[in-house]
Please model this.
Amino acid sequence: MSPRAQVYILAAILALMGAGLTIYKNVELGFPLLPGEYRTVWTIEAKVRFNADSGPAKAALTLPREQRNMEVLGETFSSSGYGFNIISEDDEYRAVWAKRQASGVQSLFYQLDVHQTPGAALEQPLDLSTEVVKPLLSAAEQEAVRQAIYSLVGSARERSSDTSTFTSELLTALSDNRNQDSNLIFGYYKNRSYVDVALLVLAAADIPAHRIRGLYLEDDRRRLDPEDLLEIYDGERWIVFEPQSGSPGVPKNFFIWQRGGKSLLDVEGGRNSGVTFSVISNDVPARDVAMLSTSQEKEALVDFSIYSLPIEQQSIFKLILLVPVGALVVVLLRVFVGLRTSGTFMPVLLAIAFIETQLFTGLAIFVLILILGLWIRFYLSRLNLLLVARIAAVVVTVVILMGAISVVSYKLGIEQALTVTFFPMIILAWTIERMSIVWEEDGPYEVVVQAGGSLLVAVIAWWVMTNRYIEHWTFNFPELLLVLLGFIMIVGNYTGYRLGELARFRQLVR
Amino acid sequence: MHLPTFFRGGLVSPFSLRKLGVLGMNARNVHYIARYNDRDKYPIVDDKLNTKRQAKRYRIPVPELIAAFETQPSRKRVMEVIEPLEKFVIKPARGSGGKGILVIVGRDGDEYRKPSGSKVTALDIQRHVSNIHSGLYSLGGKPDRVMIEALVDFDPVFDKYSFEGVPDIRVIVFRGYPVMAMLRCSTHDSDGKANLHQGAVGVGVDLATGKAAHAVQRGMRVEIHPDTQMPFADLEVPDWKELVRLAASCYEMTGLGYLGCDIVLDRKRGPLLLEANARPGLAIQIANGVGLRTRLEHIEGMDLEKLEKNVDERVAYSMDYFAAKPLAL
Model:
């Protein structure tokens, strides 16, 4: 295979790998493609309260299970003086607080951060009994109620085609306060909640059903009681219904706490127990959300990456990851334009210094040091020093210049100039030395051309490297470097003319 | 590149350059240098001492080497060597682009005279030697060796075409076939240097006859030398066939497929190989007003493995095939 074909194949493989990883991280792990994306994170706090009977107390709260449309980012428990445990019981998780001696009002807290992942549906297998316990509706005084129930069931059955539509019809009829049957039923079951009655009617219609406890997520809500949804079994799968409207499906923003099964809260050794919820929402940078949700699952891609480094090293890497972008700028300007610079990648180093110093301060300092350095270098050249010693002398001079610039500018109140320290000293000294040779051999004009070329490339590289999109992509998707590598390889194969050559060779055309 | 001339006249389309067969820098690097020049052959041309040694083996005439210093010499040793000399050249073995070459054409008491007439002292020479040794002019700043060479006794034929400097002839040799040649004449603008981008005049030389075919300065067509006012139309390089033959034989000597040979004409010895270059520049196209690419592709199209021609056959072929179209000046 020709080297050229190899380059294209390798570049394509690299680009595909990089793009694939990027898409995976974006779609599966939720890393945002654009900077400045925010996600809503809900903080839900459950507060368990009860009056302890001055003896051993134990409270067990059912905890929400993992669900596909909600991502749990973190949870905290606070329980002063209580022993705490999470136990798994019949496919459910329960938080258990226990204390040997407790009296008076007790408050226990459980808090969790969740993030709604868009699009994902609820469906997950539910292993609950589908057995229906027929309600006892035999006593004489319940005759009227029984009639009403069966009339409701009967008319709903007439107006439906399957279990799902039947349930919808039944629930609409039940919540319609102009419906006489429904009024009669609620009149009889005065002390039962709506959902309890709905469950009873569904049982009478021989449909397996249970309640779902959960919360509507709305910002800044306090002391919320859990709300209920209904879930029925249509013979194949479980379907969720909003009990009042009878519409199927989980309502938007509904956070499911418990599906079917037992009670939400059990308290032993206490009375007047209850659980209330409060909800607040915060907007958190999307990347942090992605980091939180993935670090829990220990995604290998994130775990073996820059994010596992300490923050200090991460910020260094943030800069290092920009270097390839700067190198790309140099490659493009060299291959497609043909700009001459002093030292191939010196402009990239300059651009990095500019990032730290801000552009105009950096430019001013660089030109100042170059001029002063050249001036001193010309004097040194008259002293007949050996080259290495002379460059060392220039290094020392550059350091002294930097110190002097810092001190003088600080006294003058120009704090910006203090960033002079970010310039690579050895590079500056070598640049000064090379420039002075260019000056001697090719004249000052050539010095201006080369220094100007270097600065132009450095400014363009700086401009690209400080682009917020580029910063975001290099740091959050370092695998894009593979794409960049592939691209550089393809550019390295370019054999067409440079922009400069279109001017250089124009005499040949005319 | 000289910025004012760069911007004057704007750009031409890449298609028209392509149609004329102009070779660009990228194509040169990828198609010719990377493909035809093996890395391991580079030391032969990148180090002028190696070039000299190899040239001796292949009986190619070169300027006489007076002394070479492998290590940092004591200042005394350098002065001892140059003491009896009137004219000499000090150059770095690994310098590129003519950097670090000091030419001395005469002495005035304690001082040494450069071609431009300016003077340097013994101390200046010692410093120059020290700079060369420290690697100031070598690629990547590697420590370098100093060569002291006899000054070529230039053939006076070019005296009228060169100002304050020495002319040399660059021949591009591709797979042993000479494909293009030019004469570089220094001017007052170029400060005695034969560098085209500094303002030297590039004169395209017809491969068949050794006569000037075209001349440019800073990319602009010129008819006469700007300092001496001599018309280039009258220029003819003597010993032309011998010179082209020397260039072609550098292919065997270096093993490099794409090669630039710099040759000077000595009054008595005839053409001498000054240095060979594995990455010759593209200005030769401007000097000739002709693109290189079509010529290179013509050679590439020949089945060279089967032909196995010797130097004389190759030179004859090139002189015949690449003769300038009769448009002249």
